Each structure stands twice: as structure tokens, then as C-alpha cells.
User: Fold this.
Amino acid sequence: MLNIASLFAAVGLLTVAALSQLPKSSKAQDENELRKIESETSKFEQQNDSSIMGLLADDWVYLGARVLTKSEFGANVKQNFVTHNHGPNPYTIEKKNTRVDLFRDTAVVTYTKEYRQTPDRTQFFDEDDTDVFTRSSKGWQLRLTKTCPVHVESRSN
Assistant:
């Protein structure tokens, strides 16, 4: 009986030791990875690149002026690519004031996205965006995107 108890204790200790050796991502690593994903999604959006679809969870939803599912969004990206002669959109995209909040395997990323026309850089508009990510065996996946326009008050001289 003592040998069996010793065996279970040894197996338990080895299991704990093995689990403690598994790589754990730090908060800084997670934040850097999420910021990189956000940077890449801007490039893909500007370029009308549908390879972005792999970052979206199957049940991803976009909530903005319209509500879009992943398949509807993919169709829009392909249509924009055709509309712009198989090239990029006629504007640049910059994400500003990015904030990443981590809650274990869930992350909320907020930022202001600036769209600026390429021919006339004085023409632009901003929107406030919130992205919700979850971590799975595939890594971080975007689950929800919520956008709303930023209302700019006119300045008097």
C-alpha cells in the first residue's frame, strides 16, 4: 500500500513539474500579438486582401452602420477588390490610440481608425472601433467588431 501511495505521489509531482514547464504567454506577449494582428488587419483592409478572413472566428460579426457576418464581409472584400480594378482602396487606414485589455483568454482592443483619401489627404473621417478577441487552439481570433463614427466639432476661428 505504501508503494502505491509513493507511486501516486511521484506521478503527481512529475505531472505538476511538467505542467509548470509549459510555455505560458505573458501579458506583454499577448498585447504585442494583438497589436500586430490589428496592424495587419488595417493593411489587409486597405489592400482588399481576403487573406484576413483566417483571423476572423467563424461566428464573427461586425456591428456598425450595417451588421455583417463573416461571409458577408468576405463578399464585400472581394467586391471592393474588383471595384478598385484589382487594387487597393483609394484611402489609407491608420489606427490611433490603441488600447488592449486582457481578461485571460479574452481581449478587448479599442482604437480610433482614421480613413484618409489618397488623392486628397485633407479628406478624412474617423471611427471608434472595438474588437473582441478570444484565444483558442488556433491562437487569437476576432469574434466581434463594433464601430461608430467620431463626430468632430467644427472649430471657430
Summary: Strands lie at 56-63, 67-69, 91-103, 106-117, 124-136, 139-149. Confidence is low (pLDDT under 50) at residues 13-23. Residues 94 and 114 are 5 Å apart (CA to CA). The chain has three helices and six strands.
